[in-house]
Amino acid sequence: MHRAFEVRPSRKPHWKGVEMPRVLVIAEVENLEDWERGFRTHGDLFRQMGVSRMEFGTGPGNRIAVAGDTNNLDAYMKILDSPATAEAMASDGVKRETVQVFVLNKELTV
Fold this sequence. Notes:
This protein is α+β, with helices and mostly antiparallel strands and 110 residues long. It has a single domain (6-109), classed as Alpha-Beta Plaits (2-Layer Sandwich), CATH 3.30.70. 29% of the residues lie in helices and 37% in strands. The strands form 3 sheets. Strands 5-6-4-7 form a 4-stranded antiparallel sheet. Helix 1 packs antiparallel against helix 4. The model has no long low-confidence stretch (mean pLDDT 88).
């Protein structure tokens, strides 16, 4: 028996009654250890993005993935595109041309 899977809008966390979109950023970095050390120092930028908690992981080829829920997607994107973020990424060894950003707005229920 074949069962179809249902795809529907994601059930996002809420903050003060407002849905919080989850944003996923993936990129390639020069060195994983150096990147993580630098990444952990950017709390002020994350707070400006409306994020209080970030999850991240690393993979082959010096790839990183960072996800966080934001209470203000417009602020998140504005700060992500800011000179301060560009400077932080450069300092951490992020290869800016490899950065990809996804707003996770769908889920699959199995």
